[in-house]
Specification:
281 residues; 5-stranded mixed beta sheet; 3 domains; 3-stranded mixed beta sheet; globular; Trna Endonuclease, Chain: A, domain 1; alpha/beta; single chain; 10 strands
Length: 281
């Protein structure tokens, strides 16, 4: 089958030629071996049809990979796992807060700050080297939701209002330096250009290049519990409701699993997957 024969439908509704190379690269990033990648490719190849959705291709690839290697399937499912943190944006904010702590920031989630004109709720407030950063998290439930230029325009106006009030306060021990916008989807080119011009920092799934959310999660092992293949959807939701967002948190609070009536056998499987995923063995 030639790559150009089959058109696939992206989340945005756009059609593009299917690329086995892109699928290979995605599987490679999960740590899958060449043998596992070839198995997935060979199983999926005869099932492709024109205008098959990227979501369906992912579902099939994940299902096949899971049968061969749960750890690699977990990493392969990371993008979907971020969406599964919903419907509220709080778990995503907590994930971003944890990521920033790994980078040496002190963080607070959901902070109310006075501006010159009005009061603002800041999703994450981060401080490092006597500088403070106001971070707005834009969590979306659907992958086709792209953040356009209106988002940084709005966030920048809020940041300026807060910054003026903060920096004239002599009691503040740090300088409010910059506004950030973090999203689990993507930014339009106009949004990126405006943010660059206005001095805002953007962070998305794959932006900045080689330093996006995915790269940082892999680097620091900050996988959300929604990546775990040993948990059902209902069990993941239950843990999130008990404020367990990251897989590493389960290692420190495994008693939660007992409290929620998970069996000893199930707990061992969950902890084993977490240890493998976070390279903590």
């Amino acid at each position: 089958m030639n790559d150009n024969v089959i058109n696939i439908k992206k989340a945005s509704g756009e059609l593009e030629p299917f690329s086995f190379q892109k699928l290979r690269e995605s599987l490679q990033r999960s740590g899958a071996s060449l043998k596992e990648i070839d198995t997935v490719i060979n199983c999926i190849k005869p099932t492709l049809y024109n205008e098959i959705t990227t979501k369906e291709i992912y579902r099939r690839a994940f299902s096949i990979l899971k049968k061969h290697n749960r750890l690699h399937a977990s990493k392969f499912s990371l993008k979907k796992a971020l969406f599964d943190l919903g419907p509220t944006g709080y778990p995503f904010e907590k994930l971003i807060g944890a990521l920033l702590k790994q980078k040496g920031f002190k963080t607070k989630v959901s902070v109310i700050l006075p501006g010159k004109c009005v009061t603002h709720e800041i999703d994450v407030l981060a401080q490092k080297n006597n500088y403070t950063y106001a971070i707005e998290c834009k969590f979306h439930l659907k992958p086709n939701h792209v953040n356009n230029v209106k988002i940084p325009l709005y966030i920048n106006s809020r940041f300026i209002d807060i910054q003026e009030q903060w920096n004239k306060n002599s009691k503040k021990k740090s300088f409010l330096k910059q506004g950030w916008i973090v999203t689990n989807t993507r930014f339009t080119e106009d949004a990126i250009n405006y943010a660059s011009c206005a001095g805002l920092h953007l962070l998305s799934w794959d932006y900045p290049k080689n330093d996006g959310i995915k790269d940082n999660i892999d680097k620091f092992g900050l996988y959300p519990i929604t990546t775990l293949t040993t948990l059902t959807k209902k069990e993941k939701k239950l843990l999130i409701e008990n404020d367990i967002i990251l897989t590493k948190e389960l290692l420190k609070a495994s008693f939660i699993l007992k409290k929620l009536d998970f069996s000893e056998v199930k707990i061992k499987k969950i902890i084993s997957e977490v240890q493998d995923l976070c390279n903590l063995n």
